[in-house]
Amino acid sequence: MGHMSINHIYRQFANAPDKVDITGAQMVLIMKLTGFCWNVYDGRLRQEDLADFQKERALPELPSLMDFAGYVLFFPSLFAGPSFDFVDYRRWIETTMFELPPGTDPKSAPRTRKQRKIPRSGAPATMKAVVGLIWIFLFLKFSAWYNTDLVIGNDYMKYGFLRRIWILEMLGFSTRMKYYGVWYLTEGACILTGLGYKGVDPKTGRVQWSRLENVNPWGIETAQNTRAYLENWNKNTNNWLRNYMYLRVTPKGKKPGFRASLATFATSAFWHGFYPGYYLSFVLAAFLQTVAKNFRRHVRPFFLTPDGQRPTKYKIYYDILSYLMTQAAFCFTTAPFVLLTLPSSLLVWSRVYYYAVIGTAVSMAFFASPAKPWLIKQLNARNRVAKAEQQQRQQAQQQQQQQQQQHQRQTLSRESTMEDPIMGGGLPSDPGQDLNDAVREIKEEVEARRQRGASVKMPTGNDMKAAVEDKLGRKM
What we know:
- The chain is an all-alpha fold.
- Helix content is 64%, strand content 0%.
- The chain contains 20 helices and no strands.
- The protein has helices spanning 2-14, 23-43, 52-57, 65-72, 86-93, 122-145, 148-152, 161-193, 217-221, 226-231, 235-246, 258-272, 276-298, 315-333, 335-339, 342-351, 355-368, 371-417, 431-451, 461-472.
- The chain is elongated.
- It starts with a helix and ends with a helix.
């Protein structure tokens, strides 16, 4: 870090863009070396004291000098990244990265070339390279229209306030295109070696090559909050800062807070160099992230159902407003990152009236005032009312179900005791069958008497009628 800092200072004072700059490669090297040191340190700790990520990355034993040199000087990501941990590199050289998970059908294994274990990666690598070249071409075009000379020059003030904000947004977008292009090219090189392999998607069965994905342009340009914006930008550097700075400065058993965010952004600025613009951007970004967390925790729930699972009909307006605010805040915040010098940064900020600084300060004051407890109180009251209404609806539904069940039981009881409405008059539903049964029983009784030797007198018509009526239990 010290040697890189000296080179950063030399680059800053030399201000010679035509000279070869090695600080980019050193920045990648710093990520690898510091991550490696933390992995070795974690390997000396007890397993019960480690988080899941630390257990996966810990190195109980030091690798060989050859493996360490190969990891540090891995050529496809040497100059511009992406960075990765030694565990990933070791799994790659040992080809254990490409083994199928236990229980997986061997037929679903990705295709390989001849006896190689590395799946075919030519097509995805080529696609990354083509997209990267397109981004670089767009950067060359857009940077001719939106550049630092435009926002610093006098012509910038000829535009209205909203137009000036739009120009800041396009300045940031044209600058990001350069990084999109470079990172797509380096990611494609890593995919070509096989190191970008991330397994097989269990749903689609397609090979995933996003292990070393460093940027998601769509996620950045459509981000509705600071978290989405930052998570999609320079992903591997964010992983390094989160795992080896943000979480490391947080005491065990506590959640990371503003201090952890500020320390992480300050480290990122120091890692980038010593231009004042870096520090203006990263410090303001730390405050923006805190403000965004407060809005997401205490304002956003009002646009969701009380259970937090479904959006209300007003959620679309919140999404649109949060998108506009996020993009406007970050185009202001990242302007010093592009301008670098303090006079230029403050000049451009003043030309848009420090709107993001003022908005951030007002928001911080708002959530530090009694307004925050009031929001929490209103949200809790809303949830209590919604919960009571939900309980009433559930009770009403239960009562309705009980009434329906009782009605069904009563209906079945009535149907079981009711006579056939068509026959009526107390007659059975099938009188012919009943009459046949009565005659059969009389014949069986007569036959039984004959077998016993008793004299049987044939009944008259009236006697037969009386016997049948006695069997049926009713008059005929």
